[in-house]
Specification:
This protein is of the alpha+beta class. The chain has one domain: tt1808, chain A (Alpha-Beta Complex), CATH 3.90.1570. About 40% of the residues lie in helices and about 20% in strands. The strands form two sheets. A six-stranded mixed sheet has the order 4-7-8-9-10-11. The chain has a five-stranded antiparallel sheet with strand order 1-3-2-6-5, with no helix packed on it. Strand 5 and strand 6 form a beta hairpin. Helix 6 runs antiparallel to helix 7. It is globular, with a radius of gyration of 19 Å. The relative contact order is 0.12.
């Protein structure tokens, strides 16, 4: 990608309306990497690359609202469960041999949290992938990121489409929808959907209080059942 081409892409990204998507085809890997380098840190667009197809999405306000709540839920649940959590937000995960790259809406390291504490760069050649990737699919992206996340070995993906939350577990055959999270066992897709729905009318703080109360009750019931055995 020449510098004039880079500038035109960056200019085009700046004109994508919130919730809109820019798609470019026949883009070489080198141009994708040059674009990322030119944009640097801190850009808000989500950039996905899949074997020559470049998709750039400008998050809407509702998209970010759901994402921020899910970040809060992840942190709250980890704190209540007494487990470590390292969030790496919309880190760019890319693998040249797959000719694929993607930026989740957010991601959590839990089982592998200690492996990346203090790291400012994640290298998938030596570092583990996230334990949970979160995708808010309000704009209905055309590129299916699940195939890429499966190639990376991401064990769990949460996907919210503004109607329901689906939790996917990685199997030998790819991702399958599951009832509950393996990383945070009390959480189910239905429960997350209810908390997200509550946030739409009561707000994020009220939704997070609901998460905390629900989780403490669920953990207390689990402890009681364990004691009974």
């Amino acid at each position: 990608m020449t510098m004039p081409q880079t500038a035109s892409y960056v200019d085009a990204i700046g004109h994508v309306p919130p919730g809109g998507t820019l798609i470019v085809t026949n883009v070489p890997w080198s141009e994708y990497e040059q674009l990322l380098s030119t944009l640097g840190e801190g850009y808000t667009a989500r950039i996905t690359y899949d074997r020559g197809r470049l998709e750039i999405m400008a998050p809407s306000s509702s998209h970010e609202m759901y994402k921020e709540l899910l970040v809060g839920i992840g942190r709250l649940v980890a704190q209540e469960m007494g487990v470590d959590l390292e969030s790496r937000g919309s880190t760019t995960f890319k693998v040249e041999r797959f000719a694929q790259g993607a930026e989740p809406d957010t991601c959590f390291y839990v089982q592998h949290a200690t492996s990346i504490i203090g790291k400012t760069m994640i290298d998938l050649e030596t570092d583990p992938p996230p334990d949970v990737i979160v995708e808010v699919d309000v704009s209905h992206a055309s590129i299916n990121k699940l195939d890429f996340y499966a190639s990376l070995g991401v064990p769990e993906v949460w996907r919210y489409d503004e109607r329901r939350m689906c939790i996917y577990h990685l199997t030998a055959q790819g991702y399958v929808e599951a009832l509950a999270s393996r990383t945070f066992p009390p959480l189910t897709g239905n429960a997350l959907t209810e908390f997200l729905e509550r946030s739409k009318s009561a707000g994020q703080s009220a939704a997070l209080r609901s998460v905390r109360d629900w989780l403490r009750q669920a953990m207390a019931q689990g402890s009681t059942q364990t004691d009974d055995r």
